[in-house]
Amino acid sequence: MTHAQRYWEEVMEGEALDSIAFPLTVYRLVMAAGANRDFNSIHHNSEVARATGAPEMYANNFLLQGMWERTVRQYIGDAGKIRRLSGFRMRLFNTAGDTVVVKGRVARKWFEGEGFVELEMWSENAKGVSVGPGKVVVVLPARPAQRA
Predict the structure, then answer these.
(1) What is the pLDDT of residue 33?
(2) Tell me, what's the pLDDT at 3?
(3) 69 CB contacts (<8 Å, ≥6 apart)?
(4) Rounded-to-integer distance, Cα 13 and Cα 25, Å
(5) Which of 23, 90, 98, 102 could, after both became Cys, cross-link 125 (CB 3.0–4.6 A)?
(6) What distance in Å separates the CA atoms of residue 27 and residue 47, rounded to the nearest whole number?
(7) What CATH class does 8-24+67-140 carry?
(8) Distance between CA atoms of 62 and 36, rounded to whole angstroms?
(9) Rounded to the nearest 5 degrees, what angle is found at the Cα of 120, between the Cα atoms of 145 and 13?
(10) CA–CA dist 121, 75 (Å, integer)
(11) CB 144 within 8 A of CB 137
């Protein structure tokens, strides 16, 4: 999948990223646990998850971080570079049956040899903000010079 390229000059502080909804099916949780080799049963077995105090099997950090990366990648395009992630904290369980919506906005931009952009990111489910808020710093290419 390719993403439309965003250039540093096009970015506006305060601008919202397009949000992306991720339905958490049992299938998705099982596939994610296998793909990132997190075989802890709390991520794919309801009984085990409930025995630990969770309401249901729930998404692990790798899956949730992947949702942030997918949302950021859609915004920055294929030539953009993700440089840093901070403040990523699970606040609420993201359980089977939930839909996680990843949202973000441009917190600031600056030029320091390259075009940097700091994005404020968070995830929400029906219970509220479930992950974050956190920051993702990206580098975007400059728009190619126009030929006369």
Answers:
(1) 82
(2) 79
(3) 82
(4) 35
(5) 98
(6) 16
(7) alpha beta
(8) 7
(9) 45
(10) 12
(11) no
d(CA 88, CA 135): 8
Best CA proximity match to 8, nearest among 125, 101, 118, 92 = 118
**In the predicted model, what is the mean pLDDT of residues 24-29?**
92
CA distance 36 to 33: 6
Tokens of 59: 């998404």
Side chain identity at residue 9, one-letter code: E
Q: The tokens of 57 are what?
A: 């099997």
Residue 90, CA atoms < 13 Å, CB-side half-sphere:
13
Q: How many CA atoms lie within 13 A of 124 on its CB side?
A: 7
Using the structure block, give the residue that is written with the tokens 């917190």: 107
Q: Is the pLDDT of residue 43 over 60?
A: yes
Residue at 102: amino acid letter: V
- Measured CA distances, 99 to 47, 51, 71 (Å): 21, 23, 15
